[in-house]
Write a structure and sequence with these properties.
The protein is an alpha/beta fold. It has three helices and five strands. One of its GO terms (biological process) is tRNA wobble position uridine thiolation.
């Protein structure tokens, strides 16, 4: 299992590339401008089935979004640290 960290907005090709790397049972966390992905209604169609998705709550709110707008679970820094500790590999 791997943790994929997406920092760039959906407009950045690197973000798209990182999402394609995620395999079933991997986790993706969106941070910085990557949290914009969390408001996309078809986000689950961008990744393989079985990939867990999260967005960093503090970054999401800092960009002017309301928690209720997120299409995926929002986690805090402690939750992010837990993901880092549990996963064998980190891709960023």
């Amino acid at each position: 299992m791997a943790l994929v960290i997406v920092k760039k907005s959906p407009a950045d090709k690197l973000s798209e590339f990182l999402l394609k790397l995620a395999l079933p049972q991997d986790k993706v966390i969106f941070i910085q401008d990557g949290v914009i992905f969390a408001i996309e209604k078809n986000l689950k169609g961008l990744v393989k089935e079985g990939v867990e998705l999260f967005a960093l709550k503090e970054d999401f709110i800092a960009r002017g979004f309301e928690e209720s707008e997120s299409q995926i679970p929002l986690i805090d820094y402690e939750g992010w640290a837990d993901l880092i500790e549990r996963d064998e590999k980190i891709i960023s």
